[in-house]
Design a protein that fits this description.
Number of strands: 6
Strand content: 25-35%
Order of helices and strands: EEEHEHEE
Radius of gyration: 14 Å
Structural class: alpha+beta
Shape: globular
Strand order of the largest sheet: 1-2-3-6-4-5
Helix content: 10-25%
Number of helices: 2
CATH topology: 60s Ribosomal Protein L30, Chain: A
Number of domains: 1
Largest sheet: 6 strands, mixed
CATH superfamily: RutC-like
């Protein structure tokens, strides 16, 4: 029997490969939530949304929120994020959209430029949260 639980929700896109949308790991009287990286796929259509990077960030964070809520957490419980960008020139625009979601006590974060992301996305974000 596994010590962790798999998160699965229709509120976020299905995994594009052999991985879970997220994992919940009990630690003492708390639970840690690890989300898989989310890209800007609309969960109702299964299609990557177009538009500028900041629109993709908003869709990504709505997907992340859906995974967290399926686990029993929410964005206010996020302690660490990693943002992957295909172009660091998009950093300021992505930051502005990201800041809309993390207004009080923003989590720790790393931002990394990468060559490519799945389906041609320009941003991917994963998170660690608790509840």
């Amino acid at each position: 029997m596994a010590d962790h639980n798999v998160i699965s929700t229709d509120g976020a896109p299905s995994a594009l490969g052999p991985y879970s949308q997220g994992i919940v790991l009990p630690i003492g009287d708390r639970k840690l939530v690890f989300s898989s990286g989310q890209i800007a796929i609309d969960p109702t259509t299964g299609e990557l949304i177009g538009g500028p990077p900041e629109e993709q960030v908003r869709r990504v964070l709505e997907n992340v929120r859906a995974v967290l809520q399926a686990a029993g957490a929410d964005l206010d419980k996020v302690v660490k994020t990693t943002m992957f960008l295909t172009d660091m020139n998009d950093f300021a625009a992505c930051n502005a959209a990201y800041a809309e979601y993390f207004t009080d006590s923003p989590p720790a974060r790393a931002t990394v430029e990468v060559t490519k992301l799945p389906l041609g996305a320009v941003v991917e974000i994963d998170v660690i949260a608790y509840f």
